[in-house]
């Protein structure tokens, strides 16, 4: 069965630019619109970088004209006002960077109920537009896309073989494939882009691409590759007491998204 889906992962070595991805271009059909689901799959101060990257993604999409009604953010939201944050209420995604937290919608967080709202059940409900399943949960926003629309999913967090981690449970690739198939059958997109930064992403996309002819995958973690923090840089280099670290790969990811061209000078259109 063909799944007419475009899967994208960050390729740090080629310096592809997040801001110039074709999700920010008008949909193929002028009647279409862009929807985005942004997910930080972790919690805790040591995972600062994941929420920082998702907040940065929001700022890029918002500044490109995508309205908040079409951007859904799932993150634990325990970093901005964490007791170890030297700048309370501010999140940056590179040393000395601008605040990327301001204005970010808190659609589904980890603070409201036991286990929080950032869980797989809610993720799949939001992705597939099952609004009744998130009644009285968070903002209740879901992706209400149609056949002419572009749907963009950005997950940043930890991963394993065939799985992406969330604070309380996991997103399994089999369930993701089923959800994507149902979206295709129900004509809920013209283009679907999934952009993942985690370890072992190659294992996720190997399953998604099985039998798929219409797809493209650019990954920083091949199957069964692991994205380890072998070398790190501090988000706050002037504070030796802060445990916050981010991998050099993630630091380079920011640097690639800060530019509007690839290293070779060409736009990274998809």
From TrEMBL:
Q: Does the keyword Acyltransferase apply?
A: no
Q: Signal sequence span per UniProt?
A: 1-20
Which GO biological process annotations does it have?
Answer: proteolysis involved in protein catabolic process; vacuolar protein processing
Record bears the keyword Transmembrane helix: no
Q: By its UniProt entry, which Gene3D superfamilies does this protein fall under?
A: 3.40.50.1460
Which key words tag this protein in UniProt? Answer: Signal
Which GO molecular function annotations are given, in alphabetical order?
A: cysteine-type endopeptidase activity
> Which ranges form a coiled coil?
none
A single GO cellular-component term from the record reads:
vacuole
Q: Which family does it belong to?
A: Belongs to the peptidase C13 family.
PANTHER family per the record?
Answer: HEMOGLOBINASE FAMILY MEMBER, LEGUMAIN-RELATED
Q: What is this protein called?
A: Uncharacterized protein
What is the organism lineage in this UniProt record? Answer: Eukaryota, Metazoa, Ecdysozoa, Arthropoda, Hexapoda
